[in-house]
Prior knowledge:
By secondary structure, the chain is of the alpha/beta class. It folds into 3 domains: 2-242, 2-enoyl-CoA Hydratase, Chain A, domain 1 (Alpha-Beta Complex); 245-382; 390-465, CATH 2.40.50.140. Helix content is 41%, strand content 19%. It is built from 14 helices and 20 strands. The chain is elongated, with a radius of gyration of 34 Å.
Amino acid sequence: MRRWLLALGVTAAAPFVGLMSGGEMVRAAGAVDHAGLHIDHRATATDSTELAPVDVVEVSGLLDDILVDEITDSIERAAANGSQAVVLQLNSRASVVSDERFAELLTQVAEAPLPIGVWVGPSGARAYGAPAQLLAVADVTAMAPGARIGYTGTLKKLNDVAVSFGMADDLLTNGSMGFLEAREQKVLKFSTDDRGVPVLRNMLFALDGLTVNGKQLNTVVDALDDNGQVVREATTARFFKLGLVPRLLHTVASPASAYLLISVGLALLIFELFTAGIGVAGLVGAVCTVLASVGMSYVPINVTGLVLLLLAMVAFAVDVQVGVPRLWTGVGLVFYVISSFMLFEPVGAHVMRPSWITLATCIGGMALTFIVGMPSMTRTRFATPTIGREWLIGREGVAVGAISPNGTVRIDGAEWRARTNRATPLADAQGLRVVAIDGVTLEVEPLEGGARDYREMRKSGDAGSE
């Protein structure tokens, strides 16, 4: 009996508790918030589990076609599953979709069959560029303390009318603002007096009681805890993230990931190109290159930067084949550094170039790879168990295929990369003699018709020894 009386008293006192609770409680029934949304706080459920859920969709990273598809699907899914609303948890600095696709997204958010909320969070999140314009068309918008919005650029049109943040349009076009300024400029649309919406639970409180397009949201219920104290329980938040494959594609579509993958992939392919057979390095390099190509198809690429990147790899390959870093390695590093800064085009005010840490890591790694690592691995892979290779000078063997000027020779049953001395071509199975060694490459000449100066040098050496 005591519990029933206490519950009856709480129900009668709920409006007054709502006025006195400060930040978390929604305003009293019949009030109108600063954004003009009608608030009718009439919770009919006795338990939060009886409330219809709210779907929360994470929108993080560059706004690409993958995320746009996810937002569209989430609206349709929520409408079909009986959700009260959809909340987009936004943290994005730029959009890489076409203007037409983004205009379609704005229309879908503005004309959704159920209320759409946008929460810029958690603390430190950013909504810059075109993604920030989602706040202008959403039904409920809020920010976490420490989050910022702005740099919207030219405001898109919705039904031939540009979206608007009211009197803050000019401030947000080329600048940004935090929560307090956004609240003062009436940019945000939510019902509570909170000085920010620090966590998603507060966003559910901000939705409670709002009537949007004739639909009233009921996301909070007053209940009693074990001590008989009045507590506020929010409805169930159902979190949705990208699936495994879409998440993988969205991850590789970031400039940093695409840059890292293309660098590693091409380097491994070069290593595999100058070694015998197809190994793990070639397989990993091919996978990285394919993923990088897919990712780069989503972001704006500078053609000159891409050409320089490919030229850098060609320059690296010239020295890898001889196993010794020379002039071409330096040329390749210069091309690679320039391409690293030019590879991605900016999007509006957002610079797409990877962070300095990423750039320094990749450039330093590439230098170590082609100056120290790659030559050493190539020499090791082609080396024979015999210590030293000076004994090969003067040895005779046969050509494995034509050599003009590069090819493969067989000396004492082992195959070596070879280059003809003084560009004298050798036919397949033709006899030859080793005259010098350059790294892991043997310089050879035919047994007959070889370089005269070498034969004379060899004869003079034999005469001197006698």
